[in-house]
Each structure stands twice: as C-alpha cells, then as structure tokens.
Amino acid sequence: MGRVRTEQIKRIARELLRRYPDEFSKDFEENKRVVDALTQGTTSTMRNKIAGYVTHIFVEPQKAPSSEDSEENA
After folding, report:
1. Domains of the chain by range and CATH?
2. What are residue 54's phi and psi, to 5 degrees?
3. Range 15-36 burial, b when 16+ CB lie within 10 A, else e
4. Which of 6, 36, 59, 65 is the most buried (most CB within 10 A)?
C-alpha cells in the first residue's frame, strides 16, 4: 500500500506536465532537477514529492499488461 499524496502535489505535478511535457522523463533524479528549476519557493520535501508523482505518472501506464499478453498466457 502506498502513501497518499495531497491534492496540491498532484495539481502542481499535472500543471507542470501540461506546460512542459518534453522536460520530464522516467528518471526521478532528472525530474527532481527539472522541478527545482521550474518551481520557486518549494521546499526540498515538496520538490521530491512532485518529482515522485511525475515519475509515477510516466511509469504507471507501462505496468498494466495488454490484453494480447493475457490471451497468450491463457
């Protein structure tokens, strides 16, 4: 079971992804540097939470198996 992220973290992360979609990747460390450069006045904890959520958004769609894979295994 994961940790709950506040709506503020999610909103900021989605807004950054909407404005700068080409700046982010699947790498947390790289996303952390990008978030630090794009936001002003955020604490290191908040920056890390935003970068972690952005990374989670990038990685999440690839976790779900496709319907073709489940048909092959049946």
Report:
1. 7-69 (1.10.60.20)
2. -60, -45
3. ebeeeeeebbeeeeeebbebbe
4. 36
* Residue-level pLDDT at 74: 55
- Cα–Cα dist 74/72, whole Å: 6
Residues 9-54: pLDDT tens digits?
999 999 999 999 999 999 999 999 999 999 998 899 999 999 999 9
C-alpha 15: how far from chain center? 11
Instruction: Report which of 41, 43, 40, 35 is spatially closest to residue 19, judged by C-alpha positions.
Output: 35
Give 70's pLDDT tier (boundaries 50, 70, 90): low
What are the residue ranges of helices labelled H in 20-60?
28-38, 44-59
CA torsion sign for 63, 9, 30, 20 is positive
